[in-house]
Amino acid sequence: MRLARAALRRAHSPYSGVRVGAALRATDGTVFTGCNVENASYGLTLCAERVAVSKAVSEGATEFTTIAIASNKTPAAAKQGTKALMPCGACRQTLHEFAPNLRVLVAGPRGSVRATTLPKLLPHAFGPRDLR
Ligand code: THU
């Protein structure tokens, strides 16, 4: 989470103002980080989690134990009483491709960390096994 919070500071999000940082731990202990990268052509935006996965896979790491996701607090999240953003559906699916049993830690920029798992966030997932 410390590394995710450091990555959050590098977010390029002038349009939404939402900053997200992710730190993905490979089974050998290597940690790959990512931040969200927005674009003036909004649909090209990359989420922090998928940036971290892409960095990892392109560096040869394909097995992961844990992802930590840090975000700044959005007004909507604050209203709902949640301090942290949860990963979007596209990121859940991308993570499932490589780590169906991934541990997921989410937190705001400081304070408590909430722990969950990918199977809880993406039940009845479609994945590589369905194509075998
Ligand atoms: N975002 C992420 O980085 N990860 C998620 O799982 C949810 C959304 C970013 C994308 C965009 O820059 C901003 O949050 C608002 O959608």
Task: List the topology elements.
Blueprint: H1 2-8, E1 20-26, E2 31-35, H2 48-58, E3 64-71, H3 75-79, H4 89-98, E4 103-107, E5 113-117, H5 118-121
Parallel strand pairs: 3-4
Antiparallel strand pairs: 1-2, 1-3, 4-5
The structure holds tetrahydrodeoxyuridine.
Tetrahydrodeoxyuridine is lined by residues 13, 16, 18, 20, 36, 38, 45, 47-49, 85, 87-88, 91.
CATH homology superfamily: Cytidine Deaminase, domain 2
Which ligands are bound? Answer: tetrahydrodeoxyuridine
Number of domains: 1
Helix-strand pattern: HEEHEHHEEH
Could you tell me the strand content as a percent range?
Answer: 15-25%
- Assigned CATH architecture: 3-Layer(aba) Sandwich
| Alpha carbon gyration radius | 14 Å
Short key terms for the protein model shown above:
5 strands, 132 residues, 5 helices, Cytidine Deaminase, domain 2, globular, alpha+beta
Any overview of this molecule?
The structure is a single chain. This protein is an alpha+beta fold and 132 residues long. The chain has one domain: Cytidine Deaminase, domain 2 (3-Layer(aba) Sandwich). The chain is built from five helices and five strands; from the N terminus they run H-E-E-H-E-H-H-E-E-H. The protein has a five-stranded mixed beta sheet. Strand 4 (103-107) and strand 5 (113-117) form a beta hairpin. The radius of gyration is 14 Å and the shape is globular. The relative contact order is 0.17. Tetrahydrodeoxyuridine binds at residues 13, 16, 18, 20, 36, 38, 45, 47-49, 85, 87-88, 91.
